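Researcher: Let's do a round of design. I'm pasting the C-alpha cells now; please hold your answer until I've finished.
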C-alpha cells in the first residue's frame, strides 16, 4: 500500500487508509475513536495533533486564543508533514486533530498525498460541551472556545445548499457524521463505512 492509496480487503468489506483525518470540535470524541481505529490496521500510526503543541517550549500561546493563529498554523503544518511522511512509508495513518474544512486543502498539500479520507465528527453542541466540562487529564477546558469551534464546524459543513450529501461542487469535503452511536466501536464502524462507500474520500487539487 502506498502513502496515497487505500486498499479494500478482499471479501471482507474492510478498507485500509493511506491517511485518514478524524476531526471535529473539542468533545466530539475524535481522540477516543482515533485510538480504536488505529488498532484496526497493521502497520498503523496514530498522529495526535495535540502532541505537536506540547513540543512548543517557551512563549506558547493557548491555541484557542485568536492571537495564536500564526503559532497554530506552524504547528499544524509540522503535524501534516509528519502524517504524510508515515503514509509515504506504506503505513495506515490516523490523524487526530482539529482540521476544519477551511484548512483541509492546505493540510493535504503539506502532507504530500494525492488523496486522503476526511471525517468530521459533529455531535450536538451540548454533548461536546458536557464532555469538555467533565473530562479529566486534558489541558483544554474553555467552554466558550469549545462552543466557538463547534459553531465554526457547523457553519463550514452545513451552510451550503447541498451540504446534506448531494455531492455538488459546493458540498463540504469528506464525510460529516452527526448521528453517532453511543459506543466507540460503533463510531469506528461508521467511519469505516464512510471510507468504504467513498464518502470520506478527498482528492487534492494539483
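Researcher: That's everything. Go ahead.
Model: Designed sequence:
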Amino acid at each position: 500500500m502506498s502513502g496515497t492509496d487505500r486498499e479494500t480487503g478482499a471479501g471482507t468489506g474492510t478498507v485500509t487508509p493511506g491517511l485518514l483525518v478524524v476531526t471535529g470540535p473539542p468533545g466530539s470524541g475524535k481522540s477516543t475513536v482515533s485510538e480504536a481505529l488505529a488498532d484496526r490496521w497493521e502497520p498503523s500510526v496514530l498522529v495526535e495533533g495535540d502532541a505537536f503543541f506540547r513540543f512548543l517550549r517557551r512563549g506558547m500561546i493557548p491555541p484557542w486564543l485568536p492571537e495564536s493563529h500564526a503559532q497554530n498554523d506552524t504547528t499544524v503544518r509540522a503535524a501534516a508533514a509528519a502524517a504524510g511522511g508515515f503514509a509515504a512509508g506504506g503505513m495506515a495513518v490516523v490523524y487526530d486533530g482539529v482540521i476544519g474544512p477551511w484548512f483541509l486543502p492546505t493540510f493535504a498539500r503539506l502532507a504530500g498525498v494525492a488523496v486522503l479520507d476526511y471525517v468530521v465528527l459533529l455531535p450536538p453542541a451540548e454533548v461536546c460541551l458536557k464532555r469538555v466540562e467533565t473530562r479529566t487529564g486534558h489541558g483544554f477546558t474553555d467552554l466558550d472556545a469549545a462552543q466557538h469551534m463547534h459553531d465554526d464546524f457547523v457553519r463550514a459543513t452545513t451552510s451550503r445548499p447541498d451540504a446534506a450529501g448531494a455531492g455538488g461542487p459546493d458540498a463540504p469535503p469528506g464525510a460529516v457524521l452527526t448521528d453517532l452511536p453511543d459506543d466507540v466501536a460503533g463510531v469506528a464502524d461508521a467511519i469505516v463505512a464512510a471510507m468504504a462507500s467513498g464518502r470520506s474520500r478527498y482528492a487534492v487539487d494539483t
